[in-house]
Amino acid sequence: MRSSAARLALAAGLVAVLWSVAAAAQPSGPIRLTPTRPATPPPATDVRPAEDPKPVPTEALPSPGILTNAPGTPQGGIQVDTLQAVDADALGTLSAEEGALPTTLWQGTPRPVADRLIGLLPALPEARVGRDLERRLLLSAALLPEGPAAEPRLLVARAEKLAALGEIAGLDRLLKSLPPRINDERLIRLKLDAAYLLFDTNGACAEVRRALGVSRSEAAQRGQAFCLALAGDGGKAELSLRLLSEQGFKPDPTYDALMEALIHGTRARLSGVKELRPLDLALFRAAKQPPPPDAASSRSPGVWWALADSPSTEPGMRIMLAERLEAMGVWSVERRTKVILEADLPAELLDNPLSRAEADPGPRGRAILRRALDRQQTPLARAQVIDKALALGAKNNAYAGEARLYASSIAAIPPSVDFAWFAPAAARALVVAGQLDAARGWTGVIEAPRDDAGRVAADRLWALSRLAGGDALEPWRNDRLLVWAERAKTQPEEASRLARLLALMEATGEPVDGRVWRDLVADGDRRPVAMPTPALLPALAEAAAKGRIGEGIAFGALALGETRLADLPPPVLAPVIAGLVRLGLAGEARALAVEAAVAAGL
Q: Which is more confident, 358 or 200?
């Protein structure tokens, strides 16, 4: 009788053969999500077709290269070398149009410092602009910092930070551009996880086959069973599952239940799901099983991405997560809108959208209003819906996201005196969304304020416009600031808000009159605030003064941290904004100033 080890080896070899045969026979197109069944007549009711996994679409990209200081380059210039000949740590995938930073961004920075700063970058930054700068720092091609390489290598550190940020599409694109000779296990794991999170099943199964060629790890074998089930080979998938048990791997209740549901087309029986992994999320989607209600409580933006993108997720959760991802800058407005329009909302919620949205101050209420906008046929009716949405957004601490959501719709309405009532709200939303040319058209039809409330609103719009565009949007009005400061003397909350605004203005280079400050000083105006380590702001100032872009962005991101912008004091915000200006990132500095002002209620 053969020993159990021999039987195990024989069974493993059989599965490997079956897997290779299945791989060879696999069509080049999308993989079928469910086991093949006899065809049945379509139902009479309108039902969505079964979802098939599709590769994530990617734009046509030039062949990636690395910028290196090559010996013999004339006048110390820069040349493009192939990946095979140089260190892949310098790899980047962003083009200039996509916001790539200069290739000299680490010039003057010792490599150990660059390694350490990348590892320290906040994973959940509250500042949208700060997060975007982190993303660009990690995805830009750059000359390597000076000094010997350390572990983990720079490329690995960048990839791991991109995963922590939830920048899954950027991570996937970066790792797919690597040459085949790069076989770091950490990068292989990240590449497979990204494919699972993006539900790129072709990419995921290709990575599984690659991993199995190196080792028969538990993760690779579980991925193998998943891919066999996707291909409709339920028998082979079940054999793979039995082999996992025979090899002594511990039971995985969540994985096992979802695999059974995928193979047999049944409902998964789950209990006590704690933390969802990338493979779990792909299984939920492939098996068309709704994730557990508490799945969104995860602290991982990558998990939020997969949940929001999956049609299997409960509509309310998808809407909420899509809003969260867009607010962070992980998703675009267009992607959030797509989720809103796809959501299966009860018809009664859409019948009286204005009152329903008023009663529901959360993401679903905001989604109802966005759905209502597409039902309106006239500019007047559309303006009324947008005005309501912006007002509710401001009331519920979601104004900036709503401004971005409706900016293109506002820009499509021709500014005119007939819409003077809407002009202040329209101009403010466009300024906050960064559509300054469109905002200029609306500021031209704003009527002069007739009461104190109108003057306050006009002052705030002027201030935001100056922060966003300077002279290109509004002329400087020192007299306006002096009157505002005089009015704020007796209003401590307004005085504090104006002082914050002045600090942001000075940081962007505005000529703030020093006399304004003295009217805003009040007795006992002290409060506890969160301050960074004493070394951080001087280090930021030094990096900005010397033009060390990578260092400056990293120190600025560390100063902003994961603290709400509304809670960051001006002595932190102002140096970060001023540092960005000195680094040649004036547009980003102004955008951060506007973001901070809106967060503070301006």
A: 200
- Cα 580 to Cα 116: distance, rounded to the nearest angstrom: 21
Tens-digit pLDDT profile for residues 328-350: 999 999 999 999 999 988 877 77
Q: Tell me, what's the pLDDT at 24?
A: 43
Peptide bond into 152 cis (omega under 30): yes
| Torsion 78-82-87-88 (CA) sign | positive
What's the mean pLDDT when you consider all of the chain?
A: 83
Distance CA 175, CA 362 (A): 37
Secondary structure of 409-464 in HEC code, one letter for each residue: HHHCCCCCHHHCCCHHHHHHHHHHCCCHHHHHHHHCCCCCCCCHHHHHHHHHHHHH
Per the listing, tokens 């049609």 go with 311
What share of the chain has pLDDT > 70, as a percent? 84
Q: Residue count of the chain, please give it.
A: 602
Scanning 271-378, the segments in alpha helix (DSSP H) are 278-286, 301-309, 315-328, 333-342, 347-351, 353-359, 363-373
What integer is the mean pLDDT of 422-428?
Answer: 94
- Give the rounded distance of the alpha carbon of 232 from its chain centre: 34
Q: Which of 42, 153, 162, 16 is nearest to 93 (CA)?
A: 162
| Every domain of the chain and the residues it spans | 80-307, 347-490
- 552 vs 565: CA distance, rounded Å: 19
Of 572, 571, 573, 561, nearest to 598 (Cα)? 573
Burial of 598 (0-12, 13-18, 19+ CB in 10 A): buried
288: left (phi over 0), alpha (psi -120 to 50) or beta: left
d(CA 36, CA 263): 10
Answer whether 306's CB lies under 8 Å from 331's CB: no
Sign of CA dihedral 305, 306, 310, 313: negative
**How far is the C-alpha of 206 from the C-alpha of 23, rounded, in Å?**
9
pLDDT, one tens digit per residue, over 50-89 is: 454 443 333 332 333 334 333 333 333 444 444 333 578 8
The residue assigned the tokens 């299966």 is 344
Rounded to 10°, the helix 423-432/436-443 angle is: 160
Token readout for 364 is 């679903």
The three-state DSSP-derived secondary structure of 12-71 is HHHHHHHHHHHHHHCCCCCCCCCCCCCCCCCCCCCCCCCCCCCCCCCCCCCCCCEEECCC
Tokens read off for 368: 């109802």
225-239, 423-437, 476-490, 565-579: least confident range: 476-490
Helix (H) or strand (E) holding 515: helix 515-518
pLDDT digits (tens, 9 = 90+) for 210-221: 888 888 889 999
110: helix, strand or coil: strand
| Burial (Cβ within 10 Å: 0-12, 13-18, ≥19) of residue 183 | exposed
Whole-angstrom Cα distance, residue 561 to residue 410? Answer: 33
Rounded to two decimals, the pTM is 0.83
Whole-angstrom distance, CA of residue 271 vs CA of residue 486: 62
Q: What is the CA radius of gyration of the chain?
A: 28
CA distances 578 to 69, 125, 338, Å, are 31, 19, 37
pLDDT single digits (tens) 303-332: 999 999 999 999 999 999 999 999 999 999
